[in-house]
Amino acid sequence: MEIKQMVESIVRELLISLEPQSVKRPKVLYIFYDSTAHEAYTDHFIWLTNHHVNYDRLCLDGEASSWLGKHQIECGGYGKTIASDEFAPSPLEVPLDYEGIVIPEIDLDNAARAALGMKGTIISEIIFSTLVQNKFVLIGDDISGLKRADRRTLRTLTLPKAYVNLFDYYKMELQMYGVEFGPLKQLAEMAVNKIQPGPEVPNTAINIETEERIETNNSMVYEGRLISADWVEREFKSKPFGSLRVGKRTIISSLAQDMLKDKGITIDYAAGR
């Protein structure tokens, strides 16, 4: 059975190599913390394939001890899982072969290292290398900050309030460096749009590029990067509003979310922002 799979893999790679260079497909890399996490993202891979974008999967089993020098990275071929291996190339070299990187979930430790420009883990190395090459890094926004292994070990799904605020801060810092956050279900679509951008559609309804905030009737439009509790308290005291419209990349701190909920203010995420 193993020989059959090996032959199939070789034939597949030969067929891909015979494709004309002019129609060579772009490729993205998905990074997961363990070898089973990718199973929940089958729809992503179908979307990419249907839009003529190839992908590889990097699974970091035992990532908690994957310090540089102990675990590095090796690709198993097109559409295959990439494994941690001490005989493989350096993580810094990995983004060279990809248009961009997609990380469905990132934990507090790796977010902190990447935000502070620190190396030491495979993910922080790859994020650094990708951004230096001016390639895109997409990360899921609706995440807890705890990797799956930590959730299983600690028997909890969320970080304490103080760590949630710290995680929000690191996410804001990463956005300043060029990392983009988006809903988990839309990451594949975002990757395709990055590689194959469609025509821009002008927004004639509301211009939110020139100002950080715009008031429309009982609604507030905010185009900054971070909404804090202090901002909510200050703006609501100045002129109460019933709804808040923000861009998809805007980060709302946990305390601000609680304050908006207590005041009965609804949050509307603007499409395409």
UniProtKB/TrEMBL annotation:
Taxonomically, which superkingdom? Bacteria
- Name the UniProt record assigns to this protein: Uncharacterized protein
